[in-house]
Amino acid sequence: MAFNKSLPQIAGLVAVACLATGVLAQTAYPTKPVKIIVPYSAGGPADIYARFIGDRLQKTLGQPFVIENRPGAGAIIGTDVVAKSPPDGYTLLMMSNTHTVNESLFTKKPYSLMRDLAPISPVNYSDLLLVVHPSVPANNLKELIALAKSRPGALNYASSGPGTPYHMAGELFKAMAGIDVVHVPHKGSAEARTSVLAGNVQMMFDAITTMAPLAQAGKVRAIATSGKTRSSITPDVPTLDQAGLPGYDAVIWLGMMAPVSTPKPIVDQLNSEIRRIASLREVKDIWAKQGAVPMYMTSAEFGKFMEQDIQKWAKVVAFSGAKID
Q: How many helices (H) and strands (E) in the chain?
């Protein structure tokens, strides 16, 4: 059979084939293990849901999603690692509204959240639960506020560190209730929780996903939840708004980010997969039992959401006077 194609035609076909191969190589993701950095200690909500999402991404995408806890400095240490990582989709950040608070709380950081990191997708949100140690002589919010006012500076509240949702929920509580309680930061939520369970610190705001079982077991006393409506897993516990602080609203939300300039196809792929996972009926049911509610946004919508959250907490930081150099 005669071969009729000219050399220029052959060269053109080869070029097209190489281009197609290159495109496929660029869009094939992931081809090796992906690291999800959690800038908090193990055992907290970010760690738990990073492992939950990572396990399901691994099953779908065929590569290991390895969780690495890098706590410290109010989530700044681990976040900076991600911000300085190659923008190739193989180092991701499991973040929370700690990060949006930090934009105004810390006067100096080695990165800027919206400049150095790219939004991928939110994951979920959950209410916080205000609890006290059983030794505290207060059974409801009004009694707790009255106790704090009668003993200014005598009560302490724990948090997992400066700028965390637990810290800012406490500052918002102080400001709205007009009370003087002392912030006691810890290295992580597990350590803060342990302090309250031991009675070393009188109270804390904690993720309802982890604290509700302890309250139900009588190890702490539940005072109120922090969202706009009562939680389905603590239906007998009023919100702070219902219990005497109208307008109080502070939740913990989680999301995923990547180094800025991560290719859009990778960001879009991860966004699509996380949204798919969060929309599964079995996942919704599991999260509902834990008090977590899925969040669905495109990466662009998530970016706008974070910008608004930065502005919201900047006002609380300014009002509370909390600043960290």
A: 13, 10
What is the Cα–Cα distance from 234 to 215, expressed in whole angstroms?
10
More confident residue, 188 or 310: 310
Determine the structural domain holding residue 53 and report its residue range: 32-125+253-320
| Residue 40 and residue 189 in contact, taking contact as beta carbons nearer than 8 Å | yes
If one counts every other C-beta atom within 10 angstroms of the C-beta of residue 148, the result is 23
145-162 pLDDT, tens per residue?
A: 999 999 999 999 999 888
Q: Where are the alpha helices (DSSP H) in the chain?
A: 7-27, 45-61, 76-83, 97-105, 113-116, 141-150, 165-177, 189-197, 208-216, 240-243, 264-279, 281-290, 299-320
Structure-block tokens of residue 254: 């989680």
* C-alpha separations of 125 from 73, 162, 250, 295 in Å: 23, 20, 10, 7
| Structural domains in the chain (count) | 2
Mean of pLDDT values over 118-139: 97
Burial class (CB within 10 angstroms; exposed 0-12, middle 13-18, buried 19+) of 269:
middle
275: CB partners within 8 A, 6+ apart: 121, 296
Give pLDDT, residue 9.
56
CATH code, 205: 3.40.190.10
Kindly tell me the sign of the dihedral angle through the C-alpha atoms of 10, 15, 21, 23. Answer: negative
282 with 229, same domain: the answer is no
Task: Give the model's pLDDT for residue 323.
Answer: 76
Which of 243, 263, 293 is a domain's end point?
243
Q: Are residues 276 and 301 in the same domain?
A: yes
Mean pLDDT of 8-15: 50
Residue 13 belongs to a domain = no
